[in-house]
Amino acid sequence: MDKSKKVLEKFDWTLAFILFLFFIISILAIYSAQGDGENYLIRQIGYYIIGIVIVAGVMFFDSFQYRKLSWILYGFGIFLLVFLIIAPESIAPTIKGQKNWFKIPHLGSLQPSEFMKIFLILALSKIIVTHQEKDLPKTLQTDFQLFLKLGITAFVPFVLIGQEDLGTALVIFAIFAGMVLVSGVTWKIIVPFFTSIAAGIAGILYLVLYAPNFLRDKLKIAPYKFDRIYSWLDPEAFQATSGYNLYKSLQAIGSGLLTGKGFDERAVYIPEVHTDFIFSVIGEEYGFIGASIVIGLYFLLIYHLIKIALETIDPFNTYVIAGIITMIAFHVFQNIGMTIQVLPVAGIPLPFISYGGSAMMSNMLAMGIVFSIKYHHKTYMFSSDSRK
Q1: At what angle do helices 357-380 and 2-10 cross, to 10 degrees?
Q2: Could you please report the per-residue DSSP string of 258-320?
Q3: What radius of gyration, in Å, describes the C-alpha atoms of the chain?
Q4: What band does 212 get if pLDDT is binned at 50, 70 and 90?
Q5: How far, in whole angstroms, is CA 267 from its chain's centroid?
Q6: In the chain, N or C: fewer CB atoms in 10 Å?
């Protein structure tokens, strides 16, 4: 009895309540988004149940064990990504021009890139902590060594994923960027690197907008690859083709006005709105107020994760949570940004709300690690355990 009471006391009920609110929002939005004869709602509930099982399974392993497994998990993730590329169509079919999923008989599909994000966070955290434990003098050279190790580790999955899924590859880069910023690497390295990245992106946009012939004739880039940028900047002009989803999303969110049309009163049709464009359903049915509440809930989640990161006594835990925060924040910013034309459209789901099994299980795996960190925090707070 005392042991069960102790477990309940150490459990992070605040985080559990926040995730429960996301569950309510998700099932309401997906119920409205699904058409007649579709069972996305039932499947999403099932994915949440699987997620709860994942949380329950991983939270009882402490950070010392995750640290030991980090490279094994990273290697396993790389193996899955490589195997996905070379696997036959019967195992990894090409869907909508992309080969991102393993087909699992009677269960559906599994997207390994979603889990690779978590494995990468663990690996990068171990690199940072191992580097710091060597107690090397902090110089430009040692910081560059750390930056290089982090970059190589992130570059491998970035390339493997980016061949088929640019959206998830951008998440990989965002995780790398966030981890570099908290790793203690000097700004003498960070500023030139990210400035060059920003300049490169600006240069590409300039060429696409003002020198497309150079890209087409000199670099042999197919013109249709520019359509995503053109449709982002002017969705109305491309509403019949590549800008259709964005144009309809703007219509849906705009028509919601302040308070929305009400539950299940969605009128604007968007194909497969239950996935990446689920925020347009929230904006249309619950208006500016409902959309603001959802965004506020993400802020609450990130605030709570920051509190846990500051409370933990293990640097490895701090970096893991920093990576998870970066991952979630980028997902939210990119997903919501693309539905309101702030950012280009990319295939990135809205965490805990969009329909999808792999994304849900990956996010729940991340939350399970956070639950573990919080659960074991009090156990080691006043002890002399070497895992500090």
Answers
A1: 120
A2: TT-S-TT---S--TTTTTTTHHHHHHHHHHHHHHHHHHHHHHHHHHHHHHHHHH-S-HHHHHH
A3: 22
A4: confident
A5: 29
A6: N
